[in-house]
Amino acid sequence: MGRAIGIDLGTTNSCAAVIENNKPTIIMYRAGSYTIPSLFAIDEGGRELVGHEAKEQAALNPQDTVFAAKRMVGRDFHSPQVEKLRQLFTYDMMEGDQGEVIVKVKDKTFDLKEISAAILKKIRNVAEEYLDDQVTNAVITVPAYFNDRQRQAVRSAGKLAGLNVLRVLNEPTSAALAYGLGKNLRQRLAVYDLGGGTFDISIIEIRDKVFEVIASGGDTYLGGIDFDDRIIGHVIEAFGNEHGIDLSTDRIAIQRIREAAERAKITLSTTQQANIEVPFIARGPNGILNLEHVLARDQLEALVDDLVKRTVSACESIFKDAGLGPETIDEVLIVGGQSRMPLVLSRVKTYFQKEPCKGVHPDEAVAVGAAIMAHSLTSNMGEQVTLLDVLPMAIGIAKGDGSFLPLFPRNCPIPHGRKLTLTNSKDDQKSIMLRVFQGDEKLAADNELLGTFVFSGMRQGPRGSVRVQTWLNVDSEGILSVSAKDKDTEEPLDVKLKLRQQDLAPNLSIQTTTAGDDAPATRRTAPPPPSTEDTGPSAADSKSDSSPTPPAPTDDAKTSPARFGSIAGDDSDAPTPPPSEESPTAHATNKDEASDSTQESSPSSGVVSRASDQTDSAGPPAAPAETKVTPAEEPGCLSLLLPWNWFR
Ligand SMILES: Nc1ncnc2c1ncn2[C@@H]1O[C@H](COP(=O)(O)OP(=O)(O)OP(=O)(O)O)[C@@H](O)[C@H]1O
Ligand SMILES: [Mg+2]
Q1: Ligand 2 center to residue 191 CA distance, Å?
Q2: What's the per-residue H, E or C state across 128-147?
């Protein structure tokens, strides 16, 4: 078996680490450089470039240099956020078959998973060279605030890069691992991570080797790039006022200003004034013009004040969610390059009334935590770690009036299962559709459409007579899977996924009818680690339908998985065995096993995590499913039988 590494796949910089001789080591890319710019380009000669090589030519080749691809991963081309980025970014984007973003570089097109995969492949090659060994396994980190589709996309990218993705790990949790593992701590930690593209805030409790996320929040469209954009806008406006020339449509000029703006921003973290200089930026009536602008620190602070305030509001909101005050935090961990800005540091300090902890390297902590996790998952020597996470945004469905009905509330513990009973609302209805959204907006349509699940092959019968038992399960990585069976005959239903918004049937109505058989989300606690006494009830205590912990695997299910649907990408359409009535949450997604038979289905040692619980879960046998097909079906209506205690 090859080596296992941890990868922080960042919006602007990526970083990889490995455990050697029981110590984390950052994998060096170039002399003196421990991070790899997350850039992909094709140069004039048709060569594909990644990392520093891509960055070095970016200013001269902005149209064919893809940066910040992570910002659009798993997003719809027509989402307002992507529309905005299309105006700001210098490369071309198109809509893919599934409504996703495709980038055009030279005469080739790539989906964003392929761009991420190219970066991951580069990291893999660098690591192999550094280790003089094969690298096959990796833990890859994602922002805690990534939704299901984004997580799926990162998994797929890892696979495209030839990596067995042991686990998709949240960046703040990873930083907390780097900070706290092996210190026998009992602390409540706030992890404030302001990177190049995303902002994450998490409250994490550490009890020796148990890392429990209490709440997490953030903004996947808030990071250093937005700070740069403010400077770019300011400089372009000043140049326009002075010379009467609009640079906002000149891609090369924008890319060159972007680089100068970022340099000035970084300089201003240690000085009061910085020069932004870009020679030969435009041609004026009297010849070539240079851009020369002096930016003072207080000017920069005024330009980005609202962005920094947004991070503090996100902190306030998760503390409110958690019912905690900032004074209850023992340590504030600061990670992410943009958090080096003095204004950011002082606002964080004011909010928490505490000096931020300097215990970890802001650029490397996430990769180090991922390496620790990877090591734990693949070696007998690793520390026994228990990770307990929460869902960053609610997952739910649309009600008849278009409002959003969360099935999994924000910050509910994961893994987590939900059982729904759907009935046919027409005679002889052949299929039912369920649109699943993720987000915290009141209107379903304002949230991200994760996918439309189509349950087909229904038994024919009069209206109201056919009951479909559906399980929705969010695994420990925050990835959703869905399975269904006929409640009376126990026959599994075929569940397929549609991603495209345009395919949706209009006027799908959901009737909330009776009470039934579900239970509210309950905070779960860790599976009992060997020596910790206060980890709460064990998995065996989970009796409700929202039980976070699936039962143990059975062998036959591994060989004959039941039909299932997930919002999986191309590598995650794994079969999920529907559980029996008595064990409604037994339908875990066996992603690794199903997607790649060479992968280990679960970590064999070192880590007790819900990922391993989940991966190992199984149920009764049935035929395998193909989830990617978009069948022609008759959507019809659906009735949703909600349990009496649904809203509690
Ligand atoms: N000293 C500094 N002062 C201000 N900003 C800085 C400084 N150093 C780096 N940055 C900014 O930090 C950002 C990069 O941070 P980082 O490498 O943590 O992001 P990332 O991991 O690529 O992104 P993300 O975690 O959001 O996906 C860039 O926008 C960069 O300009
Ligand atoms: Mg980062």
Answers
A1: 12
A2: HHHHCCCEEEEEEEECCCCC
- Would you state the pLDDT for residue 136? 94
Ligand of minimum distance to the alpha carbon of 174: 2
**What whole-number distance in Å separates Cα of residue 169 and Cα of residue 414?**
13
Query: What is the atom index within ligand 1 of the atom nearest the CA of 366?
Result: 21
Residue that the structure tokens 């379903």 belong to: 444
Whole-angstrom Cα distance, residue 595 to residue 582?
Answer: 28
CA of 593: how far to CAs of 159, 575, 589, in Å? 13, 9, 9
The CA 195 to ligand 2 mean position distance, Å, reads 5
Please name which ligand lies nearest the alpha carbon of 146. Answer: 1
Residues annotated as catalytic (active site), given as ranges: 8, 70, 171, 193
Start-end ranges of CATH 2.60.34.10 in the chain? Answer: 395-530+540-641
Q: Which amino acid is at 311?
A: T
Q: Which atom of ligand 1 is nearest to the CA of 335?
A: 18
Pocket of ligand 1 (CB under 6 A): 10-13, 70, 195-198, 223-225, 262, 265-266, 269, 336-338, 340-341, 363
Distances (CA, A) of 451 to 186, 265, 434, 508: 40, 40, 8, 14
Q: What is the pLDDT of residue 562?
A: 24
Q: Which amino acid is at 344?
A: V
Which of 266, 271, 334, 346, when mutated, tests ligand 1's pocket best, judged by the most ligand atoms within 8 Å of its CB?
266
The atom number, within ligand 1, closest to the CA of 12 reads 22
CATH number given to 3-222+308-390: 3.30.420.40
Atom 9 of ligand 1: nearest residue by CA position: 337
Cα–Cα distance between 100 and 78 in angstroms, integer?
8
Distance from the alpha carbon of residue 223 to the mean position of ligand 1, in angstroms: 8
Nearest CA-CA partner of 613 in 622, 630, 601:
601
* Residue with CA closest to ligand 1 atom 3: 266
More confident residue, 329 or 583: 329
Q: Which CATH class is domain 395-530+540-641?
A: mainly beta
Which ligand 1 atom sits closest to the C-alpha of 35? 17
| Among protein residues, the one whose CA lies closest to atom 15 of ligand 1 | 337
Say how far apart CA 536 and CA 619 lie, in whole Å: 26
- Confidence class of residue 2 from pLDDT cuts 50, 70 and 90? confident
From 40, 338, 344, the mutation candidate for ligand 1 (largest count of ligand atoms within 8 A of CB) is 338
Cα–Cα nearest to 471, from 634, 583, 637, 611:
583
- Burial 176-212, CB ≥16 within 10 A → b, else e: bbbbbbeeebebbbbbbbbbbbbbbbbbbbbbbbbbb
pLDDT in tens, 410-438: 999 999 999 988 888 889 998 888 889 99
pLDDT digits 0-9 by tens, 381-392: 656 789 999 999
- Could you tell me if 35 and 12 are in contact, meaning their C-beta atoms sit under 8 angstroms apart? no
Confidence of residue 540 (pLDDT cuts 50, 70, 90): very low
Give tens-digit pLDDT for 581-612: 222 222 222 222 222 222 222 222 223 332 22
Specify the residue with its C-alpha closest to ligand 1, atom 18: 336
Numbered ranges of CATH 3.30.420.40 in the chain: 3-222+308-390
